[in-house]
Specification:
Radius of gyration: 36 Å
Number of strands: 22
Structural class: alpha+beta
Shape: elongated
CATH superfamily of the largest domain: Histidine kinase-like ATPase, C-terminal domain
Helix content: 25-40%
Strand content: 15-25%
Oligomer: single chain
CATH class of the largest domain: Alpha Beta
Distance between the termini: 111 Å
Bound molecules: adenosine-5'-diphosphate
CATH architecture of the largest domain: 2-Layer Sandwich
Strand order of the largest sheet: 5-4-3-6-2-1-7-8
């Protein structure tokens, strides 16, 4: 029998398969099972017009056999089979038009990626096998054929006496090598795992003989080894069943099993889209972050299926970073057709789907916020940081998606509020949305400036997380209202009368204020203030950088120590310390200097900044008490 050569492009493909990295090898099973499933589809379709060529629907199935002694694994289907011509055409060359393109257009590493993600059909069997034989009898032929190949050096086709319609593909497994354990494909556990992982939703039963134990005949408690045939796949994807038919428990079970969570999800989102790209989606918002969520190791992504076959476990392109906590599956029949064509096309498709998914997640979160406030707040406690980072990164590009999903604690009832709620409560005379920064709500509340703003009847947002102020800065304004840090020196809450009075006072006491500024050194200015209520002093900032931002930036790994807030020491003009300062300045300059140091140290501590030399500050306080 003459050995035939593969077409050149097939040779290249084979080469790629044979040399692919080991971790992708397991997908060969998925590829052969989906071929078998396709072949059954075709036979079932043919039987619509020629019933004598088909089978009763319940008889269609795919069988996996293993022979440990001979190191073979065999996939048997009762699908349409192949004629001699089809064998030549299908297995002698690479049928997919796109396969060769990506081979030529991509770097080696990309090839490997495509093998892992999308597979390349029948040839993937050469990743695990050094010899493959296909016996097949077509529903349209009376003669059966055997195709055989040991890889790149060609293949043979001959008649054989295979007598059931369908195909039987036998792979002789390669020898194990270092880090390459092919024998595992002979094990019950591996086969069960791979079918569950990749082919659970194939519409026909995938069966295999599995080792088990049965009671010994005539005995009550003695067992003997046996084998039993088991169906390994569940067949109907939950997202293909009608919505009314699937119970919450089933969604929850699917979620916890598939995504390894111990708690049911906070929200199940199921939708489909028909348009440029049709797809079905079943998404979940977890109740809590996975253990590795806030680490570099976390991989976002949705599992992609095409016609019931998993083609990619974590497609990261489908989820924006700020929704990276979402889990789920996307199923699109359109994928198979296009995925192996130019990457561009597939990119565009993914973008369309990603956009639709983003929109849906957003609207579901908004619904949750509106109708299930408590659940949303619980969700937000866990994932709010992610949304705020989303706002901050990409320079606010996504603010339309995110701004109404943000929550902040506020002085209004000390609860979470949305920006919308805040703005709706604003009085006409209130110009800005006020916020205070601190390590906790109580730290924000304790700021003198918070008191000052609140005493005007204005609500204050309490920003307690590092990213908070950055995210508001990126947002710049909400519904035309700008954001104002209560510690900013442009905080404009004094009445005209108060302003006039304090301006006069600051001019009168210019000598004292200059003296203090000189003494302290690192402040931009020292000023009297009329809006500090009971508090003696506070530190406000000039310009864009707040003290909170200075802290965050300098604490980041490799943080920028040169970013400094421009601070202003404000002294409450009606507080007794103001009087004491003025008196000391007239009579005892040293003492006035000590007062300045102590007041400045206090102001720093109040707004959560460190003092450079705490021992020295304490000594001064003790000295003054004495
Ligand atoms: P693809 O499935 O993407 O077309 P493959 O390389 O996996 O590419 O298979 C090539 C062709 O071989 C298939 O399109 C199909 O016509 C045929 N084929 C493969 N496996 C079987 C099978 N088990 N039964 C019938 N035909 C098959």
């Amino acid at each position: 029998m003459r050995k035939k050569q593969f077409k050149t492009e097939s040779k290249k493909m084979l080469d790629m398969m044979i040399n692919s990295i080991y971790t992708h090898k397991e997908i060969f099973l998925r590829e052969l099972i989906s071929n078998a499933s396709d072949a059954i589809d075709k036979r079932a379709y043919l039987a619509l017009t020629e019933p004598e060529k088909g089978l009763d629907r319940s008889k269609y199935r795919i069988k996996i056999e293993r022979d440990a002694e001979n190191r073979t694994i065999t996939i048997i289907d009762n699908g349409i089979g192949m004629t001699a011509e089809e064998l030549e055409k299908n297995l002698g060359t690479i049928a997919r038009s796109g396969s060769l393109d990506f081979k030529q257009n991509n770097e080696k590493t990309d090839d490997i990626d495509i093998i892992g993600q999308f597979g390349v059909g029948f040839y993937s069997a050469f990743m695990v096998a050094d010899k493959i034989s296909v016996e097949t009898l077509s529903a349209n032929s009376d003669t059966a054929y055997r195709w055989e190949s040991a890889g790149a050096d060609g293949y043979t086709v001959e008649e054989c006496d295979y007598d059931t319609i369908g195909s039987r593909i036998t792979m002789h497994l390669k020898d194990d090598a270092e880090n390459e354990n092919y024998s595992e494909f002979l094990e019950d556990y591996t086969i069960t795992r791979l079918v569950k992982k990749y082919s659970d939703y194939i519409r026909y039963p995938i069966v295999a003989d599995m080792k088990t134990q049965v009671k010994k005949e005539g005995s009550e408690d003695e067992y003997v080894d046996a084998v039993e045939e088991r169906t390994l796949n569940s067949m109907t994807p939950i997202w293909h069943r009608s919505k009314s038919e699937v119970t919450d428990e089933e969604y929850n079970a699917f979620y916890t099993e598939k995504f390894y969570d111990f708690e049911p999800p906070a929200k199940v989102i199921r939708f489909q889209s028909e348009g440029t790209v049709s797809f079905e989606a079943l998404l979940f918002i977890p109740k809590h972050p996975p253990f590795d969520y806030y680490t570099k190791g976390y991989e976002k992504g949705l599992t992609m299926y095409s016609g019931g076959v998993m083609i990619m476990e974590k497609c990261s392109d489908l989820l924006p970073d700020y929704f990276s906590f979402v889990k789920g599956v996307i199923d699109s029949e359109d994928f198979t057709l296009n995925i192996s064509r130019e990457t561009l096309q597939h990119d565009r498709q993914l973008k369309v789907i990603a956009k639709a998914i983003e929109k849906k997640i957003k609207s579901e979160l908004e619904k949750m916020l509106k109708n299930e406030r408590e659940a949303y707040e619980h969700f937000y406690e866990h994932f709010g940081v992610q949304l705020k980072y989303g706002m901050y990164s990409d320079y606010g590009t996504h603010k339309d998606v995110l701004q109404d999903l943000l929550l902040f604690k506020s002085s209004f009832e000390n609860k979470f509020v949305t920006l919308k709620e805040y703005v709706e409560r604003m009085s006409d005379e209130q110009k800005s949305i006020y916020y205070a920064c601190g390590t906790s709500v109580s730290a924000c509340e304790a700021l003198p400036q918070t008191g000052a703003v609140r005493s005007k009847g204005y609500e204050v947002l309490y920003l307690c997380e590092d990213v908070d102020e950055f995210s508001l800065k990126t947002l710049m304004n909400y519904k035309g209202k700008s954001f104002c840090n209560v510690c900013a020196d442009e905080l404009d809450i004094a009445t005209d009368e108060e302003k006039e009075k304090i301006k006069e006072k600051n001019e009168q006491k210019k000598d004292l204020l200059d003296f203090m500024k000189e003494r302290i050194g690192e402040v931009e200015a020292v000023r009297f203030s009329a809006t500090l209520g009971d508090h003696p002093v506070c530190l406000s900032t000039e310009g864009e950088i707040s003290t909170e931002m200075e802290k965050v930036l300098s604490q980041m790994p490799g943080g920028d120590q040169s970013v400094k807030a421009k601070t202003v020491l404000e002294i409450n003009e009606s507080h007794p310390v103001a009087k004491a300062l003025e008196t000391a300045f007239e009579s005892d300059r040293d003492k006035a200097g000590e007062y300045a140091d102590v007041l400045y140290g206090m102001a720093r501590l109040i707004c959560g900044l460190a003092v450079e030399n705490p021992a020295e500050l304490c000594e001064k306080v003790v000295g003054l008490i004495k």
